[in-house]
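User: hey, got a sec? need Histidine kinase N-terminal 7TM region domain-containing protein folded
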Amino acid sequence: MNTTLLLLPPLINVLVTGIFAWMILRQYLGRRRSYQLYWSISLCMAFIATLAYMAMLLAGPTSGPGVYFFRLYYALGGTIMPSWLGLGSIALVSKPRFTRVCVGFLLLLSTISAIFVLDATVDMHKLSQIAGTPGTGTLHPGPWLVMTILLNTLGVVAVAGVALLSGWKLLRKQANMGGTRTSNILWANVFIFIGAILNAAAGTLARFLGIDTIFWLIMALGWIILFIGVVLASRRSRGNQSTPISNPAAADPVKVSQ
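Assistant: Yep! Here you go:
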């Protein structure tokens, strides 16, 4: 397959995650909310991981630099990033003390996971065929796999769970909040939920169903849907910032009682 076509889906991911990360980072620099910091970290991880994947293809997957870029891509994007996205959701609805405990725990798990991925044995034959796929089966099974499943599960449960909880609470409130219809905020949560599920499903499909070739397209679709949720929620009235929203979307971040 043409190299340009293989690079196109990852490039879409680079653009979407880059824009998304910049938006949330600007919010953090202006408002200093902890959940914005954790979302920024996770999105920067996704951005760097996808850049590493593209660099790997350009350098040659089985070359020295190519193997390094693959490990970086897998450690950040495949293993660690989803859990930090989930941490942002947890920080949005939790008290600072509990969030700090989660941060310390996640830092420990992330460090251990990165060490395991960097130390794992690479199947060079599989790596040579990675173009256009997520790289499923490229690392020989080991402790890294347990940590990857654990961190991915924690991340998607946190993001999707907080989104569903927020949506359920909003359904019980009045029809209008802060100049924005409740339904619009609900739609923002719906998009965040669907995006998180799609991103999680991309890896699952690749690993268990063998649909490697559509991994990056599913990931791109998931990030775009997440981004739509951000845009919807960012249209909230700036005059009222007291309504919690369970996603990394609030352009004028909500005030969370802590």
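Quick note: The radius of gyration is 18 Å. Let me know if you need anything else on Histidine kinase N-terminal 7TM region domain-containing protein.
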